[in-house]
Amino acid sequence: MITAVRKSIEEIIACVSPYDRILLVGCNECVSVCSVGGRKEVALLSSALHMHFLKQGKTMDIREMTLERQCDPEYVEELVNYMDGADAVLSMACGCGVQTIAARYREKPVFPAVNTTFMGASERQGVWSERCQGCGDCVLGITGGICPIARCSKRLMNGPCGGSTKGKCEIDANIDCAWQLIWDRLKALGLEKRIEDIMEAKDWRTSRDGGPRTITREDLAS
Amino acid sequence: MTDAFEPEIVAFCCHYCAYTAADMAGSKRISYPPNVKIIRVPCTGKVDAIHIMRAFEKGADGVYVAGCLEGDCHFKTGNIRAAHRVRRVQALLEEIGMEGGRVEMITMSAGMGERFAQTAREFTEKIRALGPSPIRDAIRQSGRRAAG
Amino acid sequence: MNAALLLADQGHRVYLVEREARLGGIAATVRTTLEGDDVGRYMSDLVETVQSHQKIQVLTQAIIVDHKGMPGRFTTGIQTGPRMHYMQVEHGVTILATGALANRPAQYLLGEDDRVLTQLDMDAKIEDDPESIRSMKQVVMIQCVGSREPGNPNCSRICCQSAIKNALRMKALNPDMQIYVLNRDIRTYGFQEDYYREARKQGVQFIRYEPDRRPAVRALENGLVVDAYDDILGCRLEISADAVVLSTGLIADDETTEDLSMLFHVPRSDDSYFLEDHIKLRPTDMSVRGFFLAGTAHAPKSIRESIAHGQSAAGRAMTMLAKHWINLGAAVARVDGAKCAACLICVRACPYNVPFINAEGYSEIDPAKCHGCGICAADCPARAIQLMQYEDDQILAKLDGLFERMN
Ligand SMILES: Cc1cc2nc3c(=O)[nH]c(=O)nc-3n(C[C@H](O)[C@H](O)[C@H](O)COP(=O)(O)OP(=O)(O)OC[C@H]3O[C@@H](n4cnc5c(N)ncnc54)[C@H](O)[C@@H]3O)c2cc1C
Ligand code: SF4
Ligand code: SF4
Ligand code: SF4
Ligand code: SF4
Ligand code: SF4
After folding, report:
1. Which residues of chain A lie closer than 8 angstroms to B96, CB-CB?
2. Does the B9-147 domain belong in CATH 1.25.10?
3. ipTM of this complex
């Protein structure tokens, strides 16, 4: 899942204050699940903005909408009838959603209300952690199901580094050392020997280093 | 406007503790300020951050959520959830330049009629000292502009 | 016991959970009432009837250890007997009749000098040792000891009548005895007033004192001396006495009501009694459905009043037990599947683990299991849950109503 955190209200205000009519759009998927951009957060932000502008003597016209998924053009199309009534769009979806709106409604300024943060998993209610960096060539099969790219601070592929202390990472003692986790897990699986296999230099072209990526499924694409 | 400031306060009271305590205050003839307007909820856990925000948007000068003592919630954890939400709204109000203290979480048991009245008085005085909510003034002014 | 008997007589199975090894409570130590009822005989008959009743199971030396369920279907865990055997009982209603404690504050030399007794002690003494009463010349009674003061602000209701009861019985044994009742005011309400008048007629002296000028008791070799200030005459009195009888009342059983209120999630009053749902409209029901109150667990009462309260509890309980199904009200949470993002927040937040993600991929709440707290509704990030009867629209409409006049 994609996780995000809300931008400061101050930053959001700075973006939208030149306008009088705002279309505030949430997304009912990832950002709802991490409680940052669903219907509830849309209503809260709308209320806060409304009050802020009232204090300035300005009645801001804010329309609240929450789409099933902001990263699909069909859903984004649902906004078409509301665009005329808006001077700008404020999106509470991740960057994918913001860009899908921007691509469809070229004449409207679109602002993000959240900072898209990482691809992660929820550990428990209210806690999410980074788990994957989308490298395009997954190594989890070799590393016992723990990603050294997303979870090792230095992205070491043949770790650990010398700073691994009592299972914690030298960069931040609150973080588990990914290579300690990998070692523990391999041991539990009876695959300790694996740790000695040298992983070859990773071909990062499958990752962002090869430029923006596109997936085209010939069987589906028309 | 020259009339003295009388705060408008909304109290979300849970059925099992705070609302009963308010009843108790009534049957014991303990008076509390008429500024406090009660909205009954089954549990403070039902009080949504949005409800608190909307109360301010409509012109409340202060809002408090009154529930059972910690550990005494009829629904186990409702008051703890409510306390978290109150803290969240406090932060949100501060982000838009309002005093976080305009919203508060208060706990009491059902028998504490005196405490209900006491906290109602204290909260009213606290809000009186903070002065009218800027929103309330703005609503009045925009209303007057629209009318005039 | 009275509530148990009434319900059992109507065919309902009753579990009577008693902490002590025997039934009877405080009333088992009271000998007679003001009206002259033989409490001892009444109690032994009652205990006998209860214990031999087919539909009543008496559990003695029993402690409540856990409790769950909903009105009409509670399950309570009880440890009982000397071996603390654990058992679970299923029941539709719960009646709390755990009583109160006889107050015994260390005032006026109580516990230091054995010529200072409580009305309960005197009650027994009159019956067990009438000779000693016949030999007394002067007796002083002090009212409101440990009641109507900080810490126990209640009037205990029973002490005035106990005093008059004992005064009349002493007079009957020893008509020449002088009895002084130092009081703040005499609260013999209802027909008890007749006994008060009778006591006056027989020469019992009633002297008022103010709480800021309390009497004091001094112990001398050959008797006790009570110093008092007569408010009406405006002078100090010194009364010698063969015995001083303190009208100590009832005090809430703080420990018991605290434990049980935690277990059952029921409210207590400021002074640690169990709290009724409404002082006038629902004096026997508790705010939690399926819970009823009987006797002094609720507030100080006389035996007659406790029995009446027990009968009332049985009556109220019958209104639930007589039905084949109970309408628990519609205050339950409902999910709009079209809005649900299947985020699991409600699943994790519900204190009773009710919501689950169904086969269609959205959250579902079983209305029969939902307790109606609304926690899930307030936490749902998709605003997909509404608590019936407390919907967002209703709350916002209330807010609108409140601020209408201003805006
Ligand atoms: C000093 C004194 C004098 C009195 N004199 C008079 C009088 O003259 N005339 C009169 O009419 N009334 C008198 N009363 C009042 C009378 O005693 C009460 O009204 C009556 O006993 C109340 O009955 P009850 O069943 O409510 O409580 P109780 O008699 O207190 O019985 C409560 C029962 O619950 C049990 N219990 C408590 N906690 C638990 C638990 N957690 N689990 C299981 N069981 C538990 C107790 O062991 C007890 O058996 C007097 C009271 C006092 C204290
Ligand atoms: S727009 Fe972003 S948050 Fe919404 S579904 Fe797509 S990826 Fe998830
Ligand atoms: S190896 Fe690559 S694809 Fe696999 S989890 Fe790590 S970053 Fe994601
Ligand atoms: S301590 Fe572990 S997680 Fe941290 S940089 Fe070194 S190998 Fe990576
Ligand atoms: S909290 Fe709301 S969105 Fe999440 S699973 Fe429950 S009903 Fe669905
Ligand atoms: S209302 Fe309360 S009990 Fe019912 S499902 Fe929601 S959280 Fe659970």
Report:
1. 9, 48-49, 51-52, 55
2. no
3. 0.92
